[in-house]
Design goal:
There is one protein chain. The chain is α/β, with parallel strands linked by helices and about 600 residues long. The chain contains 20 helices and 15 strands. Strand 11, helix 9 and strand 12 form a beta-alpha-beta unit. It is globular, with a radius of gyration of 28 Å. The two termini are about 50 Å apart. About 35% of the residues are buried. The C terminus is likely disordered.
């Protein structure tokens, strides 16, 4: 199915205007800064969005005006006066009965607002929305959130008409033909989904192909806007609503909600630099069910990565590929006979059962289920290799050893392809190690057997080619994180998954054992030099207390020794050329 992945920044409203004033900037200058930070972060997270929309763009203003006109033409808007509670932080109106201890349900401060306003006839849509939810039971996910929305809409007295303009501030899209009003920020913001597809031009190819949207993924705190207001706006304008809205939860830190005042806010850049991008991506989707809240801790990060990736998938890859490299001339072996029942069971799990299970999970936004299903197959592979014991077969049945290792290579190929959307760089490296060429054999379409109704044979084009060279000497694609390093956030650079273990000061470290096979790969050693050089540089820049400075100097000495060792190794592998592998690394 074609995908159009949209993200962006909602930049209008009273909250933005006040924040700009506090920052001594104009609203557009403030919005530019914030939007650029999100753009940079999206790029750093290796997201593949098709468009990044800003609600300050001209194309968006045109789309909002067109939606307003259509609602006016349908007699869905009238001029009145609003008086009630409003939260600037939430950009939301609240009834007296919704307040908790004088605040919004979210904990935000509220203020009493009285002003002239245009209203949307939301009250007309109470029963129509309830009917819509009943006819479209999958419109809201997860199910618990659906129940919350239905309870809100079905409240006694039904929905109240919604104020959709403001006059007490100016930072927003002017109401057509009445510029002293600006469009309510949520009517403005929600329209972005239409804007990006070329609306109001409904003949636009993107609009015809991707609207109604299959899925909106939103935070649970803004579900009401997306699941109540948005479908009402659209249906009132004779436009189709999206097919599904899914509300994700929040991340907490060590059991507490993140807050600047508490000092427990996690910086995504620090997380990327500390654990590596792919490890962070995996943890965020594999640790919790996507619709629930999740609690972040260094211990849970290390446990998840070490258990699923280092111990299960990574260990299987290292065991199988090392045997092939040492005993099969570094080539994918040719099976020495027909596949046994045990072989077929594992191949069918990886090739016929895994992808359908993943698709079921994806349809429900169950990303944890996707990761669990893949790791379960890796666990099956580990049980298989233990039972088949190819190291024993090497002594008495080499043809059978070749079959076992071939089955494992195919399992690793399939699991790497299916996990690649979560961990693109790491899985690409594993496919490189397997020697899988670019093209069809790295695609989802290469995973299923061409004809699953027949016994599995080597003639199936969706099995990995025999006698294909591996991509070099195996190395750990998923190295372990050190939970006992004594550092809440171990430091590395974002182009590596490896979290640095901090050696005890004064202890001589066996660097050859520490880095293993990577010390035989000039590229891998180059990455290590860059990592360690950047770490040393950042340590030197950091502001420290006297006590930290004393221990820091000792640690720096150890790290400089380690860097010298690695740079010497790099020079040896690089034919005596001592140039630094990255310009960021200077002589320490």
């Amino acid at each position: 199915m074609p995908v159009y992945f949209l993200t962006g920044t909602d930049e209008h409203g009273q909250k933005v205007q006040q924040s700009a004033i506090n920052a001594n900037k104009s609203p557009i200058e403030f919005a530019d800064d914030v939007s650029n930070k999100f753009r940079d972060l999206i790029s750093a997270l290796n997201c593949t969005n098709n468009d990044f929309i800003r609600t300050t763009e001209t194309r968006h203003k045109d789309a909002v005006h067109e939606l307003w006109h259509r609602l006016e033409q349908k007699n869905q808007i009238y001029l009145g006066a609003y008086e009630g509670w409003y939260s600037v932080r939430d950009e939301a109106f609240y009834a007296e009965t919704e307040l908790v201890n004088g605040k919004a349900p979210t904990g935000a401060e509220v203020e009493w607002v009285k002003e002239e306003s245009y209203f949307f006839r939301l009250s007309d849509w109470t029963q129509k929305l309830l009917t819509f939810y009943e006819e479209n039971p999958n419109f809201i996910g997860p199910k618990g959130r659906r129940n919350e929305v239905i309870s809100f809409v079905a409240q006694e007295g039904g929905l109240k008409d919604l104020s959709i303009s403001r006059t007490t501030f100016s930072w927003g899209i002017p109401v057509p033909n009445d510029p002293k009003h600006v469009v309510y920020v949520w009517l403005d913001a929600l329209t972005n989904y239409l804007t990006a597809l070329g609306f109001p031009n409904e003949d636009n190819e993107l609009y015809r192909k991707f609207w109604p949207a299959h899925l909106h993924v939103v935070g649970k705190d803004i579900l009401r806007f997306h699941a109540v207001f948005w479908p009402a706006f659209l249906m009132a304008a004779d436009l189709a609503p999206p097919k599904r809205v899914f509300a994700h939860g929040w991340w907490t830190k060590d059991g507490e909600k993140m807050s600047k005042s508490v000092g427990n806010v996690l910086d995504p850049w620090d997380l990327i630099n500390s654990y590596g991008l792919d490890y962070l991506r995996y943890y965020l989707v594999a640790e919790i069910n996507f619709g629930n809240d999740g609690d972040f801790s260094h211990e849970s990060m290390c446990s998840r990565i070490n258990t699923d990736l280092a111990n299960d998938l990574g260990n299987l890859a290292q065991r199988a590929l090392t045997m092939i490299f040492k005993n099969c001339e570094g080539k994918v072996p040719t099976p020495g006979g027909p596949f046994t029942a045990e072989d077929e069971k594992l191949l069918l799990a990886a090739k016929e059962q895994l992808l359908p299970a993943i698709r079921v999970c994806l349809a429900q936004q169950n990303m944890k289920g996707v990761c669990d299903a893949i790791i379960d197959v890796a666990k099956m592979g580990n049980r298989y290799i233990d039972l088949q014991a190819p190291w024993h077969l090497l002594k008495n049945d080499v043809p059978r050893m070749h079959t076992v290792l071939y089955v494992l290579v195919e399992l690793l190929r399939c699991t790497s392809i299916l996990l690649e959307p979560v961990m693109p760089a790491s899985c690409s490296r594993l496919l490189d190690l397997l020697g899988v060429p670019e093209g069809h054999m790295r695609s989802f379409s290469s995973v299923p057997l061409q004809d699953s109704s027949k016994p599995i044979t080597l003639s199936d084009p969706n099995l990995i080619a025999m006698n294909q060279l591996l991509g070099g000497k195996p190395y750990p694609v998923f190295p372990k994180l050190d939970v006992d390093s004594g550092k809440e956030v171990p430091v590395t650079t974002s182009n590596s998954n490896k979290a640095k273990a901090t050696p005890a000061v004064g202890v001589e470290v066996d660097y050859v054992s520490k880095y293993g096979a990577q010390l035989d790969d000039v590229v891998a050693v180059g990455v290590l030099v860059t990592q360690l050089g950047n770490t040393i540089r950042e340590m030197k820049k950091a502001k420290r207390t006297v006590e930290e400075e004393i221990s820091g100097k000792a640690l720096l000495k150890e790290m400089v020794q380690e860097l010298t060792f690695l740079k010497d190794r790099y020079k040896t592998l690089n034919n005596g050329v001592a140039a630094d592998p990255a310009s960021a690394v200077k002589a320490q």
